[in-house]
Design goal:
homotetramer; mainly alpha; Tetracycline Repressor, domain 2; 74% helix; elongated; DNA-binding
DNA sequence: TATGAATGAGAATTCATTCAT
DNA sequence: CATGAATGAATTCTCATTCAT
């Protein structure tokens, strides 16, 4: 994982993201990236040794954003439900503001033959999951969250439904208000998992 | 939508499915299909007028399998929870026995530039959702399912978590027992949505 | 050269002509012809042994129409100028009513590698030319046509300008009135070649 | 329209011309061009973005040659008849020395589905026509050319017969002496259009 | 850092034609 | 007469990558 990106590298990653946003993963070609930036295709190889490395760095970049979002929320001094609400709404806000991020996260099947890439997506999801689990455990301790289901299962259900929401938003061509949809989802999830 | 497939057409669709299973959507090329069958590439065009038509027919085929599974379950004379359990477990069984089906259903992003294909996937998901909603309504009537959440939302949460399960299974290279995982998911979902 | 065409053969030739009219020579494929008629591609080979034979027959058919038009005009008991006028206007009328004929006659370059086809077009043009020459000779005898230019050269100039007219009409997408344009061309040509 | 061609681009255009000369428009394929030059097919796409662009550039190139020929002749301080003679003979000389040029100019029907290409050919012909008209007007002023026919019609007759000459030369496989044929045509035309 | 030129492997599709039934 | 299935050669074009300058 790259530690610090050069200006050109950042530019490449940002352009890659933009291209994905405009035309999906298929639009992400070396040619498109470089002509968008205004450099030669070969120049790109000065900054990344392969297209896979571009994608890999892109995923690192995305991972940092998402994971740090989760960690920041987790550090807040608010109730577990407040945290869950903020985690979901914040995540959806990130996607709403950067649709390409959603596309990248959802295109997992594409990376199948690139174990490295798959592993990175997997890691992001695991990071999210473990944060959720921590918060749910907290909620169980305070008595707010039901104890008859394992925290992992609860986290799983939350992530599944958030993911499906994003999925449908993406397939719809980003045509509905993701944050609005998120609000009602959050309410549903809270109702489902709160102690009775 | 094709009504009845010729032998060769079925063979092509089956081969396409097999190829997807082995190498993902990227492995689905005209050349691969035809050389797997043992005919010339051009021969394939006697049976389908384009690659898109192959994919489209494949999705029709898949749709019929999935939707009829849901409908069959819905016709059973069992309790709503029984139906939900059978719907999920049956669906996962289909995927467990035919991993490529899972790949096709999950690769939605890929078809972005082919509205027709996307529409077919969408229709399959809608079909599943409406069946779920009917069953949940039934469960609310019998008093088994909680009434403080709309049926649509419940269906959404169920589908999201089922989908995520399949997703992770696919990403893991089909390495864990999907049906086993499904069983605990079903238990979780039932616990979540039953009336208290 | 085929003596008498079967019904199916005529149908094929007519369809070929229609296709050329609609989409140019490139639209003339075995597949297009047969699917337009509603038979299998292979069925076409019962009636013509190759695509070249289709074209060849088509040119025969066209040749008969054009040459007989010229001969008929030549048989009329009218002045040479009357004949020239009728030859040109009649020819343009045929094209105006059957634009594909014009396309076929003008697409000579296409048949370059098919000597047979080239020869047929050449023959049609020679037939026209010799009729023109005969009429011009007549006109010289009656004193109506200038004698300071060989009949062949006059015929050549006439045919060149008629051909260019048709050419431009074809390139314009048949957008102007060919017969109208023909009238002024005829007047010009008569003025040019009459005795002073 | 390209302003300045790179060496490779010129090489490609020249090769394209050569191929057309040897085998007609049908011989102009990306594969033929590239293998003739000795590069990979894909390499060609570094220099032209499509085959249409190759043809388009080729027509530009041809257009410049022809139009500048006409303009140069028009600038000469000679009589109108001298100019007409030089325009025709010079044009035929160009074709005689570069038979492929003739093929390209005459293959107009082929470009029917490529409006751009057709438009270029059209423009070349219009350029030629307007120069002819100017010269004919001049000739009318000096009294050398007959005034009973519009200059446009005269230009049309000239161009039609020149074109037919080139056409027959091309169809004959470039077998006769184009310049010789041109000389007698010029004489004919002059006789036809001079004042009596 | 950057470029221009090139490459090889593929990809989807078209077309005229053949042949057994 | 007609068909369905198949073929092989072409064709245009794309893509990630390399390398000398």
């Amino acid at each position: 994982m790259k530690d610090k990106l050069s200006n050109r590298q950042s530019e490449i990653i940002n352009t890659a993201i933009k291209l994905i946003g405009e035309g999906g993963i298929q639009a992400l070609t070396i040619k498109n990236i470089s002509s968008e930036i205004g450099i030669a295709e070969s120049a790109l190889y000065r900054h990344f040794k392969s297209k896979t490395e571009v994608l890999s760095t892109l995923l690192d970049f995305l991972g940092v954003i998402i994971i740090s979002h989760y960690e920041n929320v987790n550090k807040l001094k608010i109730s577990p439900f407040g945290k869950i609400e903020k985690m979901i709404s914040g995540q959806l806000k990130i996607f709403a503001e950067n649709p390409p991020y959603a596309i990248v996260i959802l295109s997992d099947g594409l990376y199948k033959n690139e174990k490295l890439l798959y592993a990175k997506i997997f890691k992001i999801m695991e990071g999210a999951k473990s944060t959720f689990i921590k918060i749910i455990d907290e909620g169980k301790n305070t008595g707010e969250i039901r104890k008859d289901i394992t925290s992992e299962q609860i986290a799983f259900v939350i992530m599944g439904s958030v993911r499906l929401t994003v999925n449908q938003w993406s397939l719809s061509g980003f045509s509905f208000d993701l944050k609005e949809k998120g609000k009602s989802l959050i309410k549903t999830l809270e109702t489902l998992i709160q102690s009775s």
